[in-house]
Fold this sequence. Notes:
Strand order of the largest sheet: 6-5-8-7
Amino acid sequence: DADGRFSEEVPEWRGLGVKEADKHIIAHLKAQGRIIKVDVINHSYPFCWRSDTPLIYRAVPGTFVAVEAIKEKLIANNKQTYWVPGHVREKRFQNWLENARDWAVSRNRFWGTPIPMWVSDDGEEIVVVGSKEELERLSGVAVSDLHREFLDHIELPSQQGKGTLKRVDEVFDCWFESGSMPYAQQHYPFENKQTFEASFPADFIAEGIDQTRGWFYTLMVLSTALFDKPAFKNLICNGLVLAADGQKMSKRKKNYPDPVLVIDSYGADALRLYLINSPVVHAEDLCFREAGVMQNLKSIFLPWYHAYRLLVASVRTAEAREGASFEPSVGEALGSANLMDKWILAAANGLVRFMRAEMEAYRLYTVVPRLVELIDQLTNWYIRMNKDRFSGERGAGERRTSLCTLFEVLMMLCRMMAPLTPFFAEHVYQNLRRVVPDAPASVHFLMIPEVNEAAIDPQMEADVRLMLQVIEKGRTLRERHTLSTRTPLPEVTFVSADAVALRAVETLHEYIADELNVRRVQTAPLAEMGGRVVLKCMPNHKRLGDRFGKAYKGIQGKIRALDTDALAAFLREGSLTLEGETFDKEDILVQLQYSGDKSHDADGVAGGLVILNVSPDAAMLDEAMAREVCAKVQKMRKEAGLRKEDALEVAYSCPADSSLLARVLRDQSAYIAGRIGRTPIPGAARPRRARDGRAADAAGDVGGLVAEDAGEER
């Protein structure tokens, strides 16, 4: 029966729940000798999510929508829609439509929208009422409310002499109501007819992937049945957020962190960015981990905030020294001759162009990684390579140009990130807008920036991308040989068959030399390396196997037989032809390998090889020790809370004047003085006031003023 108990058709266990009767049925079968084996098998089983009791499947009469009759129209209308990701529409939803069955829309519940269908006792006369006014006209009863308790008593006179018609007992499946949303929200067709028709189908909807069999489906069924068109034009489908162990989040199990505590700890923006830069935006499931939110805070928001702080501090310093207010100028930033300025502006404007195109296509998942990459480029590369310009060490003109550039990129970043990180973007914008005349009161009043075509420079972006790869490979090689970046090295050499790549490294050699701390940056065409660099090729098995099938084995042998000259030509040209078949760099992967002496080590980058001389001479080792001394002094200055301009004495003591440290301090005194602003003096030569007071050494601290917070708003 409706309560899951056996009815009178099963008199032996009448009134028992179907699961409760199991033991009685087993005993009955045993008594008749019909049991072969009794066992327990663990398997998944449906339970009521409210009462946590087992459910049963029971066939009941119901009301259906004849979906199978409109299946072909559903499939045709689905093809008119645009989904992100596209595979959800083309596979999951398409398969569901192709196998669609008539839809049971009735439910045996009290709460819900009553089905407006009146039926005679014999079920042969059916009247479906289309409006409140029609019900009042047919029944002669005034209707004040459409909930079932106000309708169930209303009866309609039969038009076929069958007495009176009574409303069916069921209510609508709630998904029928969800699918009716486009019409119900406008009270169509009774009101807002023109408004509805002007806005239907909807431009855009978004929901979870579980709605392919829910809301997305019911929207499509009802709109096709009513208008023979889809209910929406564009759809973004997201995956599901699960608990860390992959189970569904459950209030009963409490297998997830409190969202309020997560927001209080890391901020709403960190949580938002964690979710929209996760598998969820690819319609895949995400196992939520609080550590991921914290990582976003550390790797994205804090560097972004420190970049903003640096701008504010540098501007304040410049204003104090020059006695004039800072006025940002886009023209001055674009007119900069500095290569890093050109690069970061090209990267920012290239991203604006990309963002506009991708957002038009509803591809959020491609935009967020690029925005995060821009923050990394700005904070980990551009700012570090230009600190001497921000501080004014290279002159007031360079400082102003670099600050205009940094301001422009930060302002563009605020506007691009505003839809994704609304609170933090607003916080930064509120300070930046103070130096922009007539700036809107909020970043959310601004649109995504327009592309400044004058700043676009794809070649510059490609050149710097290669430069960063060379630097990162150089650092990897240093780590492999346990060589700190404080240790100077003789040279790094970039080898390639690509003249454009060689020219890029030559142009940007100063930045590479500075970042890798090498005396020289050299480039060498592959053809000039002789036997020191060999070429190894690897066919792309999957790609070529799909292309040639059984013939691939012969093709593979011919590719592996290519000599060095042929492979070098392939790297230069980007393609080659074998027996009438053309192959590109996706088909054949070529690696450059170093075969020289052990004083060098090498690693590959895209289209080239980085060779690092890992054998420093004695002078370089002395300079490394001098750099270590400078680093120790700067660390103690920071721990003591001293400003850069604060005067101080630096004294040292060594076990013996002939020690390596004493010699380095003497021979490298000019270098050390240039880095820390003071020439180190022997401890015995310290002024008496310093000997009597607290020394600034590793064992003590230094009194002094607390540095002004660089993050203070202007």
